Amino acid sequence: MRSPLSRRGFLAAGSGLAAAALPALSGCSPFASADSDPGTLTVHTQLGTTAPGSPTYKAVVEQFHTEHPGLRVKNLVNGDDLPQVYETSRLARKEPDVVMVNLYDKTLAWTEVGATVDVRGYLDDWGLRERVLPAALTEWTDGEGRLRAFPYFATNWPVAYNTALLERAGVGAVPTTGDQLIGAARKLRAKGIAPVTVGGNDWTGQKLLAQIIQTFLSPDEARKVYASGDFSGSRGVREGIDYFVELRDAGVFADKAQGLTSDIMTTQYNTEAAAIQSAMSSALAKVPARTAGHTAVGGWPLAPGAAHDKPTILRSYTLIGFWISPNGVRKIASVEKFLRFMYRPEVVSRFITESGRDMALVTDTVSKDFPLVAEAQRLGDRVGQVLLPDLHVPPTATQPLITATSTAFTRGTSAAAVRSTLESAYRTG
């Protein structure tokens, strides 16, 4: 898929924006000196607030300062708005040297349009290729063979089951089929317990919907569906949407799931108001010890005739990478020192042991203090895997798909209406 954001479009669109932004990017702005001080490496990151791994990141940066007294890392911290803030700074040529962000939505086009650089040569020149899992290299490489960033964080995205709540409701085992899941939901509701909690109004619901839709699709078929936005053209995708609607209208999802967010979802599961959640590694790491003690990690239940042999999970190696900007190329010796340090096995291990992060790098370290993360890492071939659609959805459709997801989770919406709503996300984006 070619990004709709061309090099010419990025620069042309930015001419007016950059002019408007320049006052904010000068004077006291943190971007003003991004490329002016050879002794400072400016890193734009999402690690610095409440994001999992933030305390570890701050600690290892201090260790880096101790080992490199002549080089200071200056962190610029943003949350979900980081891509937009970075693009604004790039248009004004005041961008930071290194960016730590995931491969998703806007960032898919960055290397193609020159907002960041292909790092394949640096990875090889610095001898770091063997540190990266092959699957991570594949996911971070675009269709032209460019390596967008140095892979770092990964995630497993299994399903967490509160076995104590299931037992209280008279459910004897973790459900592995759709019929078992529907039966479990009825019993849970009878006890006043929400079955599957999900952020039907945000990205968590989008991912679970995508996972269920793929019940009858091979990875290649799913790739075509999410690249094209054709949710009607194959029998498999129609059956997947029918399966989702069947589960939804049978009461499998928490009440008013279409209005819930990821924060509400994790709160409901962690406080044991809900029995089941689709949870990525960072959410599993936050499950309280009491709840974690009776949580089993597995896959999403299948329907008869599914394209998979076992309940499914999602996996991704694109959660956070180190992108190098054009300004960063001017300080490439400093960037090399920083990335060599961040790739050191003992530094990588700290993110695993202290923060419960999954890594896109080769490591034998296990999250001993984060048992559910470790359990997810050990699932292996006990589960199947479906495609995370993020790398294949056109950036212009990403946010409209989340809006469409809320409609899909609204009980009573027909399968035909769900298909139409999903397809419209590609036309209106």
Characterization of the model:
- Pfam families: SBP_bac_1.
- This is Carbohydrate ABC transporter substrate-binding protein.
- Residues 1-34 form the signal peptide.
- The chain is of the alpha/beta class and 429 residues long.
- It has two domains: 7-155 and 316-368, Periplasmic binding protein-like II (D-Maltodextrin-Binding Protein, domain 2), CATH 3.40.190; 159-278 and 394-428, D-Maltodextrin-Binding Protein, domain 2 (3-Layer(aba) Sandwich).
- It is built from 19 helices and eleven strands.
- The strands form two sheets. Strands 1, 2, 3, 4, 9, 10 and 11 form a seven-stranded mixed β-sheet that branches. Strands 6-7-5-8 form a four-stranded mixed β-sheet.
Poorly predicted tracts of residues: 1-33
Average of pLDDT:
91
Number of domain modules: 2
Structural class by SSE content = alpha/beta
Output the CATH class name of the largest domain: Alpha Beta
Q: How many extended strands?
A: 11
Number of helices: 19
CATH fold-level label of the largest domain: D-Maltodextrin-Binding Protein, domain 2
Biggest sheet record:
7 strands, mixed
Morphology: globular
Proportion of beta-strand residues: 5-15%
